[in-house]
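Hi L., both proteins are below.
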Amino acid sequence: MNHLPSALRRRALPTVTVAAVALVLTACGSDDDSSGSSGSGEAAAQEVSVSTLYGEVTVPAGPERVVTLAESALDVALSVGVTPVGTAASRGGDSAPAYLGEDAADIPIVATVSEPNLEAILEAEPDLILAAGGLAQEQYDALSAIAPTIVPEASTGGDWQAPLHTYAEALGADDQLTEELDAVEERAAALAGEGGFGGSAAVIRWMANGPLMMNANLMPGSLLQAAGATPIQVAADLGSRPHSDPLSLENLAEVDADRLFVAAFGADGPGALEAARSQPAFQQLAAVQSGDVVEVDGSVWSSASGPIAADLVMDDLEAAAA
């Protein structure tokens, strides 16, 4: 693909229309249309089709310039050896998720969690965009005018791995991802075999406005169950909601479990958790009294879902069971 005109790169795009984006890209690619039908079969052989929320999407078989607009997409890309040319900032942050370390530190930020920067994405000249599940139609239309855009279908039955496979298929690396996720499951099964996680367990995200019970079907809760723990009912009954509404300290008893994994999240989360520790409602929790409260990384345990994050969750589970 030819470089975009400098005038477009300078233009602010909050109000850019899909038609305008498509027109520019058509102009950029017009020089390449002279190849004729003789290359059509060869081009088809270099493309694959991926099933997404918005139907079947044709993507290049070996994408070279990938933009990731979801933390899990970035996690998957890095885990299979792909370094994106642009990514979204972490939830509440202005850089890539810290748990991904130096591999992600220098990737340009081209979006927030909720809003893609179309100008920055255009300048990155992607040949593939991996977007977050549930992306709105309007945003999808704008992004897909720039490059093939993959939006995973909503997972059913608490299958946290399904969206990851959609990303990996688009990257041509689903076999590699499967091996990595199988290794994670084997670690969890080993813990279950050792009997270190009998009883109930729950994951709580602690924010400035109070604690939230995380859905038992998200990645950390699923791995806890695979390791032998039983989810508490309130976490199992959240359905498609990722977490409960904020709880008052007076209602903390509703989320008590034999073992609690507490993930402070956001700039003010750690301070709010520290202040709560001295409150009677916190001190009366069974897990507190038995010494079975484990403080964990909020960005990993309450926001992430990729294979790298899953390995970090298993590190914490193995340490807790030791």
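That was the first. Here is the second:
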Amino acid sequence: MSRLVLIGSCPSSGSTLLADLLDSTPVSACGPELGLFAVKRFYDSWERGRLIMKDVSDSPYLLYSRLNKENLSGYGIDLKILEFIFKNSRNFQEFTTEFSNWFIALRSREPNAITFEKTPQNIDTIKIFFEKDENARAVIILRNPLYTFDSLIRRNFSPFLAFLTIAHCFQIAYDLKDNDRVLIVKYEDVVSEPFQTVKKILLFSGISFDDEKTFWKMFKNNLYRYYHDRVRDIILFKNAVWTKWTVQKTGVIENANDREISSKTLKLFNAGINSNFKKFKILTPVTELFSAFGYSFNNRLRTIDGKIKPSFNDLVFLVKKKIIASSGFTFIFG
């Protein structure tokens, strides 16, 4: 088994809570979002002889995926050390092993502990990750798409980009659902059975863990996640528009689905269900994507004729992204 397991998701799907939980055992650790493993061209670094830390993103709502340099400190390293690890690794597997060793030592975990790296955009590079390491594993967390949609709208996503982002992630999960190297978990199960979910993920990753008492003690007193995830975000992104998003507290499990959805959001979501996204590489009908993971809306949403459409700003963003992706400057070194 690989010492590094990737966690990918749609934004606002509960991946931060899952990271908190997985960082609460002696045999696992999960740091702040690094972003590096979501960079497609990063996996070509060994062939090109230099560390590639930025590339055009496959995620509908981002132009680029990049290394979050400000989060390296959460792993006990800086850019100079990261480059040292890269230069002294003959291949990708050696890099992930040494990277994990640094982090596990920093966190004083057991020698065989697993490092989980949670960046939502990791969902876009799982297949490449597997190509580079035949022993690699990945976890995808999904959440009821209606509540994810509502959360993204609250984070100032346009309705079109919010729904397209959800459909994009569900399509990837759908395509990987029969892959035995991928474990798909649902946010609703994480909230209702947190310890059982952690046990399941750890066993999937090659480690058995049954000490529930230790788990809860570590979870409720996890100052590492508080300072390196929550406080760091407040300091670095206090002026960002998306900080209107409500960040979940550490050491507490709250069900973010326990809230009312406005009639306006319901209508917009239903319009998304009625829409076709094949031109955006969503080849499976969204109703099939959602129902494949137990999410059905036939009894809740009233059928309407409207479809969700991109705004002018959406179109400008998507055209800009397409131009960048096809320009030849598809990756940036250093």
